[in-house]
Amino acid sequence: ARRPGKDAMNQQAPTTLNVELGERSYPIAIGPNLLDDGALLDRHVDGGKAAIVTNTTVAPLYLARVAGALRAQGREVVEIVLPDGEEHKNWESLNLVYDALLKHRCDRKTTLVALGGGVIGDLTGFAASSYMRGVPFLQLPTTLLSQVDSSVGGKTGINHPLGKNMIGAFYQPRAVIADTSTLDTLPPRELSAGLAEVIKHGAILDADYFAWIEQNIGKLVAREPQAMAYAIARSCEIKADVVRKDEREGGLRAVLNFGHTFGHAIESGLGYGNWLHGEAVGCGMVMAADLSARLGLVGAATVERVRALVQAAGLPTVAPDLGIERWIELMAVDKKNEGGAIKFILLKPLGSPSITTVPPETLRATLDACVK
Ligand code: NAD
Ligand code: MG
């Protein structure tokens, strides 16, 4: 694979990567003001109409630009605006999408265009996988988290009252077009939440990238466009490489859950929406690094590097006190566990993963040390 570094660092031209999945391969374009590039957008809307799915927050910011750019190419455009929020990633919203598609007589050549963060991307992708047994799907991610993580890899779906992301499908988009200028309007907490997944990619799979993030974290928090474009490109490249090797999470893809076993416990223990997912993952990575050190897989200096970087990204590093027994209970229900034992993604060393079960007393020591 071509490294994105040079293009992304030297100029503001879009960087293009490819997710290699045989006949389901697709490009990722990353750069400023791509939402205005009608020709680029239209290239991935072959044949029929474009139905843009977005929400009430993103629509006033970007919908007219995308719809206008496509209409200027002669494309018929349907606009579908959903309520904003993780609590609306459900059947009701999905049905609103189907209703609008049918009402506008959208056929199986209609391309569904997801304009928004991970909630819109996941829901729209699932709608695309099921409407008329599958229609083309284009991702226009507008949060950092969706640009570095959720728009790549083909996991789509909605929540069920009894569990997050429980209804869904693997369905790859035709393309991902990440307009880095959209990050300018993102609330700071959402930006930091996206940086958690950026740090994760370095920590678990690329120590050099981790060091680059350490050196550039100030620029990333300040949304400096060239640093941001490089981080998005390198993160997409790392995730795309994992997905290429393990599209349906047979094994390797699980390493992307670094920090998530602890993070999911924080999210469900505090009640969803209290901490953002990325905040919980940031703290969870500090805890996973601590656990790695207790097992002798990394030294204390590595734990401190992870903690310092998570903190510099504007993320919490001290875990909430849920009670040790409750903590263990919450981690045990994580859906990735098989046969009862909790599997942890740990560092061995920084930049490479080790998947292992852990002695209960070691886990308790980490919880004692990290919880306040
Ligand atoms: P989100 O989609 O809820 O977006 C966060 C907030 O930012 C929302 O209020 C949104 O309306 C707003 N927003 C979006 N773009 C904006 C912009 N440019 N300017 C200002 N505001 C903007 O949250 P998210 O963090 O992007 O995604 C989280 C979702 O992604 C979760 O549902 C999670 O399950 C899913 N996810 C999926 C995968 C996957 O592989 N499919 C991976 C990670 C996360
Ligand atoms: Mg995550």
From TrEMBL:
<feature type="binding site">
    <location>
        <begin position="84"/>
        <end position="89"/>
    </location>
    <ligand>
        <name>NAD(+)</name>
    </ligand>
</feature>
<comment type="function">
    <text>Catalyzes the specific phosphorylation of the 3-hydroxyl group of shikimic acid using ATP as a cosubstrate.</text>
</comment>
<feature type="domain" description="3-dehydroquinate synthase N-terminal">
    <location>
        <begin position="80"/>
        <end position="192"/>
    </location>
</feature>
<feature type="binding site">
    <location>
        <position position="155"/>
    </location>
    <ligand>
        <name>NAD(+)</name>
    </ligand>
</feature>
<keyword id="KW-0067">ATP-binding</keyword>
<keyword id="KW-0808">Transferase</keyword>
<keyword id="KW-0057">Aromatic amino acid biosynthesis</keyword>
<feature type="binding site">
    <location>
        <position position="164"/>
    </location>
    <ligand>
        <name>NAD(+)</name>
    </ligand>
</feature>
<feature type="domain" description="3-dehydroquinate synthase C-terminal">
    <location>
        <begin position="194"/>
        <end position="337"/>
    </location>
</feature>
<keyword id="KW-0547">Nucleotide-binding</keyword>
<dbReference type="GO" id="GO:0016301">
    <property type="term" value="F:kinase activity"/>
</dbReference>
<keyword id="KW-0520">NAD</keyword>
<keyword id="KW-0963">Cytoplasm</keyword>
<feature type="binding site">
    <location>
        <begin position="182"/>
        <end position="185"/>
    </location>
    <ligand>
        <name>NAD(+)</name>
    </ligand>
</feature>
<feature type="binding site">
    <location>
        <position position="260"/>
    </location>
    <ligand>
        <name>Zn(2+)</name>
    </ligand>
</feature>
<keyword id="KW-0479">Metal-binding</keyword>
<comment type="similarity">
    <text>Belongs to the sugar phosphate cyclases superfamily. Dehydroquinate synthase family.</text>
</comment>
<comment type="subunit">
    <text>Monomer.</text>
</comment>
<feature type="binding site">
    <location>
        <position position="277"/>
    </location>
    <ligand>
        <name>Zn(2+)</name>
    </ligand>
</feature>
<keyword id="KW-0456">Lyase</keyword>
<protein>
    <recommendedName>
        <fullName>Multifunctional fusion protein</fullName>
        <ecNumber>2.7.1.71</ecNumber>
        <ecNumber>4.2.3.4</ecNumber>
    </recommendedName>
</protein>
<comment type="function">
    <text>Catalyzes the conversion of 3-deoxy-D-arabino-heptulosonate 7-phosphate (DAHP) to dehydroquinate (DHQ).</text>
</comment>
<feature type="binding site">
    <location>
        <position position="197"/>
    </location>
    <ligand>
        <name>Zn(2+)</name>
    </ligand>
</feature>
<keyword id="KW-0028">Amino-acid biosynthesis</keyword>
<keyword id="KW-0511">Multifunctional enzyme</keyword>
<feature type="binding site">
    <location>
        <begin position="142"/>
        <end position="143"/>
    </location>
    <ligand>
        <name>NAD(+)</name>
    </ligand>
</feature>
<feature type="binding site">
    <location>
        <begin position="118"/>
        <end position="122"/>
    </location>
    <ligand>
        <name>NAD(+)</name>
    </ligand>
</feature>
<keyword id="KW-0862">Zinc</keyword>
<keyword id="KW-0460">Magnesium</keyword>
<comment type="pathway">
    <text>Metabolic intermediate biosynthesis; chorismate biosynthesis; chorismate from D-erythrose 4-phosphate and phosphoenolpyruvate: step 5/7.</text>
</comment>
<keyword id="KW-0418">Kinase</keyword>
<keyword id="KW-0170">Cobalt</keyword>
<comment type="similarity">
    <text>Belongs to the shikimate kinase family.</text>
</comment>
<comment type="pathway">
    <text>Metabolic intermediate biosynthesis; chorismate biosynthesis; chorismate from D-erythrose 4-phosphate and phosphoenolpyruvate: step 2/7.</text>
</comment>
